[in-house]
Amino acid sequence: MLEREIIYNNKREFEVMLKKIFNQLNKDEIVLNRGCGVMYLQRGKNKIAFDKIPHDSWFIKEKLCNKIAYCLPWSVLEPEEGNYQWKHPDWEGSMDSWIAAGYKVALQIRGQDTWGTFYNEGVPQWVFDAGAKYIDEPIRWYKGGYGALNFMPDGQEDPMRYPVYWDEIYLDKVELLVNALGERYNGRPEVEYIILGHLGRWGEMHITGHSPLEPWFDAGYSLEKFIETNKRIIDIYCNAFPDTQIVQEICAPCYAPEEAEDLHPVQSVPEIYEYMADKNIIMKSNGIGYNWHEGSSLYWDKNVADIFRKHVGDNKVSIENLVLSEALQEGLDEHISYWQRGGESTGLGILNIDRNIPINEKKIYSFYNFYKEAYDKMSIEDEKNIWRRMASQCAYRIALVRCQYEELISGGEFKTLLTWENSGQASCYEKFQIRIALTDKSGNEVWSAKQPPSCACSAEVWGHGKRLENSLTWKFSNKLSKGTYQLQIGLQHELYGQEMFELTNTQALENNMYVIGDIII
């Protein structure tokens, strides 16, 4: 209920009514906003259209999220130069139905997918036919290792063909592709973000797996060359997507054979992270769940966590992998903006959650072999609760907790004092305006206005746990007839079709405006 109290201020001549909004959603409810949240994920072949998903599925009924990530090998999208398969069943042929159902999509075209060119999972052969350099690694190097990801192609001995990422012909072809992607997807409000996909296996920055490095040195690898190439690819994407968020997955540039220390670990390229921060590119870590390096955590490379912390407030951060709750809590503690499950299993992995089969057979849990006992103890409800918890907490959760305004107004203007709170684990990086509207007794909007919050929009101001006040003056048309109007309020993005935020206050109207009370002119 709303608590109503009349307050008179001796320093002012107008009457003020204070309303405290107590009926906020509880902490476990889910709000769906751009710029944060949980994502479903479809990788590999045989992606599923939304209309093929059972609509009584638990995650659909609970509205866990409104975003889904897609990736596709370059060789599948562009099998011949300039011949783009936009409507491929594993690309728009699937995602269009999700968009029609109200979902936003995150998109990545991978230059080097799991198995490379000879398996139709990488750079198309026509790029190499044009003269781009490549390195072939024997597929046997990947058999039996973690990199096999449990689905090594049977009976095939074709090598893993990697592009030489700094080759000029390769980069020229990448730029043509990315420009075509930009022409089709830049600025579209249904696109949540674009992921860089042309440096490293799966786009994760690392130039190769744990294999001999001599061929890479022979091809000109150096840390300086890597940094130069990464910056160039970033620029290619930024030029093609000036109106769309961009993500880069960070990783060690160069591993080392077998169990040796990485030749160039993730912390060896601070210049790239500074460059990303300057370009407002989201940092994404795909490694949470098991720490391969020395550090204070079992679940996350301390060096990655340190990079995230250094740039907190500069740009958003994201993590990937469906792992134990203890590991995911470490991501939440770093105030991540996005989370999705990881792995290269095909289809929509969340469909496996409520299948009554052993958890390791679901092929969506990362690092199962390291935590078998803990995983095997989980019930199906425990598995669902991981998603529910991440969906509710991996978000900015903004509420209007108090609105102080003039109930009786004249002279063409009135003032509001608004108190806001972000109870989500994610900080709010969005640029937005506060929108005010008056409606008549029939519910028709007769006046509206918007302006930026007086305290500005930034992750520091609207961060996790922050509570802040906003004092604004609103001017309205003198043509409004005398009478009683309903006062509504909301937050509206400056970009993305100026869509409205979902607040954690109850009783949202269809347009995500929220009723405050009456105002008398």
Please render the helix and strand layout as text:
Layout: E1 2-7, E2 16-21, E3 37-43, H1 58-61, E4 67-73, H2 74-77, H3 92-100, E5 104-110, H4 125-129, E6 134-137, E7 160-163, H5 168-185, E8 191-195, H6 214-218, H7 223-240, E9 246-250, H8 270-278, E10 282-285, H9 302-310, E11 317-320, H10 325-333, E12 338-340, E13 347-348, H11 372-376, H12 380-393, E14 398-406, E15 413-422, E16 432-439, E17 445-451, E18 467-475, E19 484-493, E20 514-520
Parallel strand pairs: 3-4, 3-12, 4-5, 5-8, 8-9, 9-10, 10-11, 11-12
Antiparallel strand pairs: 1-2, 2-14, 3-13, 6-7, 14-15, 15-18, 16-17, 16-19, 19-20
Helix pairs in contact: 5-7, 7-8
Label this structure with key terms.
disordered N terminus, 12 helices, 5-stranded antiparallel beta sheet, 8-stranded parallel beta barrel, elongated, alpha/beta, 521 residues
What does this structure look like?
- With 521 residues, this protein is an alpha/beta fold.
- The chain is built from 12 helices and 20 strands.
- It has an 8-stranded parallel beta barrel with strand order 3-4-5-8-9-10-11-12. A 5-stranded antiparallel sheet has the order 1-2-14-15-18, with no helix packed on it.
- β9, α8 (270-278) and β10 (282-285) form a beta-alpha-beta unit.
- α5 packs parallel to α7 (223-240) and α7 (223-240) packs parallel to α8.
